[in-house]
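Many introductory courses stop at the sequence. We go one step further.
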Amino acid sequence: MLYDLQGETNMSPIVGILYSAVVENSQRLQLITEGMSQEEVDYQGPNNNFNSTAQLIKHIMYVDLNWVYRMKGQPLPLSLKEQYGPMIDANNRLPMVKGQSLNTLMSKYEDVIKMLKDSCTQLTDTDLDTIVTFGHENEKQATLRWGLWHMADHSRYHQAQINQLRKWYIEYCLSH
């Protein structure tokens, strides 16, 4: 297997590289969650005080969806906010997600990746210099270039948490 970061033929070179990093991480997310039972998808760690895999996947997809719309230069439509959000709950935590199948979560995430692909085919490398706001209160600024990189980095960060949950879940199953 050859590992490389090449975008689609209809993408600008830098846009394509960054897009392919996001895609590689979405494929990695599929691999590390493959075969999870519903119980494991909803598992919140040894003391039920961590974010579950379901919460983390939903969070990754909502962050990515927000970046897709920043790239489009458009606000996230209310219908998508309601379907994919919110970012945080009233306690400033990731919203609870219970009973959503891994297939449903990953299918919705694939839809977000398709939207990203469509947006990236419209971007030029020069467009990556565009500055947008982000954060819970839109208090931060970044270029679209950073946003695409962040999508890949953010996913990897939460994938490490999912890997830890998987280890704990195996230990939990072995001890019960």
